[in-house]
Amino acid sequence: xxxxxxxxxxxxxxxxxxxxxxxxxxxxxxxxxxxxxxxxxxxxxxxxxxxxxxxxxxxxxxxxxxxxxxxxxxxxxxxxxxxxxxxxxxxxxxxxxxxxxxxxxxxxxxxxxxxxxxxxxxxxxxxxxxxxxxxxxxxxxxxxxxxxxxxxxxxxxxxxxxxxxxxxxxxxxxxxxxxxxxxxxxxxxxxxxxxxxxxxxxxxxxxxxxxxxxxxxxxxxxxxxxxxxxxxxxxxxxxxxxxxxxxxxxxxxxxxxxxxxxxxxxxxxxxxxxxxxxxxxxxxxxxxxxxxxxxxxxxxxxxxxxxxxxxxxxxxxxxxxxxxxxxxxxxxxxxxxxxxxxxxxxxxxxxxxxxxxxxxxxxxxxxxxxxxxxxxxxxxxxxxxxxxxxxxxxxxxxxxxxxxxxxxxxxxxxxxxxxxxxxxxxxxxxxxxxxxxxxxxxxxxxx
Amino acid sequence: xxxxxxxxxxxxxxxxxxxxxxxxxxxxxxxxxxxxxxxxxxxxxxxxxxxxxxxxxxxxxxxxxxxxxxxxxxxxxxxxxxxxxxxxxxxxxxxxxxxxxxxxxxxxxxxxxxxxxxxxxxxxxxxxxxxxxxxxxxxxxxxxxxxxxxxxxxxxxxxxxxxxxxxxxxxxxxxxxxxxxxxxxxxxxxxxxxxxxxxxxxxxxxxxxxxxxxxxxxxxxxxxxxxxxxxxxxxxxxxxxxxxxxxxxxxxxxxxxxxxxxxxxxxxxxxxxxxxxxxxxxxxxxxxxxxxxxxxxxxxxxxxxxxxxxxxxxxxxxxxxxxxxxxxxxxxxxxxxxxxxxxxxxxxxxxxxxxxxxxxxxxxxxxxxxxxxxxxxxxxxxxxxxxxxxxxxxxxxxxxxxxxxxxxxxxxxxxxxxxxxxxxxxxxxxxxxxxxxxxxxxxxxxx
Lengths: 447, 447
Hints:
homodimer, elongated
């Protein structure tokens, strides 16, 4: 095989790194399931026309064609790889509506693909972990509060492995839209997009654009900037907004929701969820709450978990399904934790015990010991050859396997050695157990 | 969204079906890890030239291109979706050789894609679960015996959920090649391919082809057919082959290996692994043992788990890496178990307890109960609305949630109801536990 080299934007992990990723995925899975989310997987492909329905990402789509296919022009039935898990989930809901029970809470952990230019924290293939709740009529607001609470609970669990704390920032489309309407601005979407540039071009740049591009007066621009400057964790954010002297029924509704959300979150997961009224990204297609999450101390990485509420997550023409969801960028997170050496695995293999082989003739004795250990839930491997003992121990040492088992010879019993301490004790495969912390590889803060 | 319909060859599961698939995957994962296999995942794409190196499957490859890409002609750096997990694993081994420890035992559970015409048991997107051992020098034979033993152990675990027993058939390239050379046949590959047609065209058809296409004499054809008729589970297969009066050093070597394999398997997993000398599929590219697995009573489904030994799994030009591996066709297996109603999940959600809500004002009381249960590892959900009690119970009943929790009112304590039996008892969220069999959805034989 020629030209073996990594492909930019398609990250792969070494075995010990995969153990870290896998631990994070199973933590998310466990927390999602404890909250009543059921798993689905969808196929990797969708018809191009469905992918393009969410227009702005069209440029990033990978299309498929068979090597032997005749035509190379994209046709209406051309398939593309999904670029998120929301579009396929919406299609799945419509396709299976008669067989699902609503409100339907699902989680989905799969790879997605985007033909983007790879850069730090951006990949062409990456793993996402999504939760969504979709209803076939009304979707109660409390699910909008549930999203960041579930995510904060999951990330809290990951603190134990050395993951930094997260900050989940929330806003509500109704607040921004109601406020802009209240001050007489017409170009809501345009204003949202301009406000989104705040971090990049600063308040002066934004003020200028609001006036030149979004038809705002000097006073309207000031008011929009004042709104974007508000943040907090309790009902004082509503006071701060009202102090700007703008009133509109949608604004009131949005403020009530936003306060409800941050107060519910403060009770359940204190110190994680903040209202931040400058968050605009996503507000132009979400219709209620919107979420962004940063890893504290790693803000430049961008959001590692985003989402929001759609009044129309899916629609089959007759019926519309409102939904709310949030998506963890697993690869972005794992990549940062690994590349900055924040988190590590205690070994690169599940094996807890290597059973030594004295002689190839006696391999079956060692195999029997390994089988007895496995039957009791202890991962065991047998030495590949009856090499010198030093070499067999080195085999274990290189992989971080903590124990080497010596089958008894000449009427002596079996013994097991902790190769870290050198301690060697008599043992029987039917009763011996490693310390709990050595049973499986652990994922821990790197030192 | 228009034209919502399933795509032929791209299977998707409903939530309760995914629970079945997920159970099977985690059983495989657990057994693989107990045997010391470490997990890796590889990217979904490989350069086309690498995919084509395994020539015969070229017609099945899905190529990728970006929607906005200029050129549509396949170029040397065109990417395609992997059609198995062996080609990417071989590339991964070469790419990371300096960072892996050999012999390297890995498992890999991922989707693969083939542009095949979909039919029963054949899909365009499907899940495979592979184990392989690769060495950077000698690969000891005992790993060839390990493959079917690990797989038989995993499938044995799945008998508990109603999966039928499996029959693993093995053969050895050295036996066939040594035998053919011993009787003076030159066209080894051609003969293997003709013998592979035995089930389709019968012995008379095969005899004719061996003579007309593979240059066999009448006697040579008879001998090849006699070899293919031999099967068994112990050293008598070697006696049967030797009774044919052919001798060749490679034949002797192959017979010794084949007998060692079936005898090791008979000790560890009795009654599952059989030598079957008519198995030819794969022998033209494998170099030692080869495996095929049928689900007893479902032979027409084809092999659900196949593999074998390569002397050259991977090579970087300087160094050659021998390997042996086996691959479970998870989707083919799951699809059969589901569509023939052999296996089912006891419910369609992880939720064990639905906490009722008396009044929207009191939702936080119910949320606190759910949080307490979750904190103790019990999956809990809170009723979506404070609807009439009958409706809340129906919500649980439809999803198969076994318990509904009633928060205490008017100084009364909480109570929990088993909605199957109707039994309702006082309970506290800090101490109550469901019966072990109700804690998570179970996967069981369908009745």
